[in-house]
Amino acid sequence: MNGDTKRSAAVRVRDAFENILGIPVPVRVRCWDGSVSGPESAATVVFRNRRAIRRVLWSPGELGLVRAYIAGDLEIDGDVYALLSLPELVTRVGAFDVRDARRALGGVWELARLGGVGLRPRPPEVEVSRRRGIKHSRARDASSVSHHYDVGNEFYRIFLGPSMVYSCAYWDETAKDLDAAQHAKLDLVCRKLGLRPGMRLLDVGCGWGSMAIHAARRYGVDVVGVTLSREQAAWARKAAAEAGLSDRLEFRVQDYRDVDDGPFDAISSIGMSEHVGDAALPTYAAALHSLLRPQGRLLNHAIAAVRTRDPGGNDKPGLIQNYIFPDGEILPLSRTVDAFEQVGLEVRDSEALREHYALTLREWVRSLQESWDDAVASVGAERARTWLLYLVASALGFEEPGRLTIHQVLAVRPADDGTSGVPRTRSQWLAASKTRELDAAEAP
Questions:
Q1: 127: in domain
Q2: Angle, alpha carbons 18-386-402 (nearest 5°)
């Protein structure tokens, strides 16, 4: 007891976590009493008060640390990437893997003596409350989408930039910055869909309308965009009016399952199917199939798990489920492809964009950090911290192969005679579409 009191709080905290996790903790710790422990060159975790310890003990693993950081009880001093890029540490914290139970209990006891005993701290205000209703019902999906997207359009503009595109950009040889890369992505989708003047496009999960506006302006199509976010729809309608395209664009606050005015010549779904869920994926595939005309194309752009996850893994408490995408599910690519093929869609192409998303996320983080004060003023410190942690962790997740990836899957609804209407090679249909795009751009 007397020996423990002579050691600083930082030394005791660091030793306790090493005992709990069973590995050396390669970070620097600074505590509420000003004490410091750990290598000077390492990323520094700051325990601003004893409540941070209580959060960890009441919610062991990822959730407790996330709550402490978002609430401001715990801070990261220096490079956030440096801390979150320690794979063994992050994996061990997330799973709370204990190799030596006796030693781990000693670490828990040490944290308790440091101030971990007490009432359970209230979760940060921005945390999703207990979910009610049937998972992926229309009402519950609308609530989940509203939690993520209806936090203020100005906040998203701060880190998305003028493009207002909240999905992986396409960093081709023409993309010199984020806006150019997002333009290239939207153009790539249009080309894969074979858009041309007079076509009718359904944009599922239309966001702030960027894809719809690009398709109408550059390819001369009429677009119906659907979203469950009222704030997104309001922004999209205003942007369409400012572009002089209101007569070509319709934005609805509507569930994709309620769209009944098909057929459409093409459907784009960009960064939306992650909200659908495994159980509802067959419904999603069938609905889009029914809305396509024969030879109509579907472009599904979505994050994918590299390997099949454990049942219920998508519902694990932590940053994603409690703060970012409640009810969101990241599925293997094979699961999506199978769902499409089961309803009669023919998958013609799949392109992996993993490295592209890592670059995109890095740009979003840079923009958010550069405008940090504006972000906090817009949505508050808790929500700003939430997004920073999420974007940094996601960037690292896409940079390391074997964790996350993202695919653009192109599918077609074949005609009754079996024809697809898709040229035989990728170069043929991309070149043909590019020619149509240039013609449309030159039109008055």
A1: no
A2: 65
CB 406 within 8 A of CB 301: yes
Structural domain of 212 = 138-442
Strands 404-412 and 346-352: antiparallel
**Comparing C-alpha atoms, which of 174, 189, 180, 176 is closest to residue 162?**
180
Looking up tokens 């975790």 gives 45
In a domain, 128, yes or no: no
Q: What is the C-alpha to C-alpha distance for residues 411 and 289, in angstroms, rounded to an integer?
A: 10
Residue 341: Cβ within 10 Å count? 13
pTM, to two decimals = 0.90
Q: What beta strand segments (E) does 133-241 contain?
A: 200-204, 222-227
By CB atoms closer than 10 A (0-12, 13-18, 19+), residue 33 is exposed
CA 146 – CA 12 distance, rounded (Å): 42
Q: How far apart are CA 209 and CA 223, in angstroms?
A: 10
Residue whose token pair is 């909240």: 166
Looking at the structure, tell me whether residues 260 and 199 fall in a common domain.
Answer: yes
Are residues 87 and 31 located together in one domain of the fold? yes
Residues 6+ apart with CB under 8 A from 302: 269, 271, 272, 273, 274, 336, 406, 407, 409
Rounded Cα distance, 428 and 444, in Å: 27
Alpha-carbon span 48 to 251, nearest angstrom? 46
Token reading at 342: 């089961």
CB atoms within 10 A of CB 274: 17
Q: Which tokens go with 301?
A: 């752009």
Q: Which residues pair with 222 in a beta bridge?
A: 200
- Residue 226 shares a structural domain with residue 370: yes
- Residue 89: count other Cβ atoms within 10 Å of its Cβ: 18
Number of domains in the chain: 2
Instruction: Decide if 283 is inside a domain.
Output: yes
Whether residue 24 lies inside any domain: the answer is yes
Per-residue pLDDT of the chain (444 residues; tens, 9 = 90+): 444 556 899 999 999 988 888 888 888 999 999 999 999 988 899 999 999 999 988 887 788 889 999 999 999 998 899 888 875 565 555 555 444 566 678 888 888 899 888 889 999 999 887 777 788 788 888 787 777 777 889 999 999 999 999 999 999 988 999 999 999 999 999 999 999 999 999 999 999 999 999 999 999 999 999 999 999 999 999 999 999 999 999 999 999 999 999 999 999 999 999 999 899 999 999 999 999 999 999 999 999 998 765 545 566 778 888 888 787 889 999 999 999 999 999 999 999 999 999 999 999 999 999 999 999 999 999 999 999 999 999 999 999 888 899 999 999 999 999 999 998 887 777 765 554 554 544 433
Q: Are 31 and 70 within one domain?
A: yes
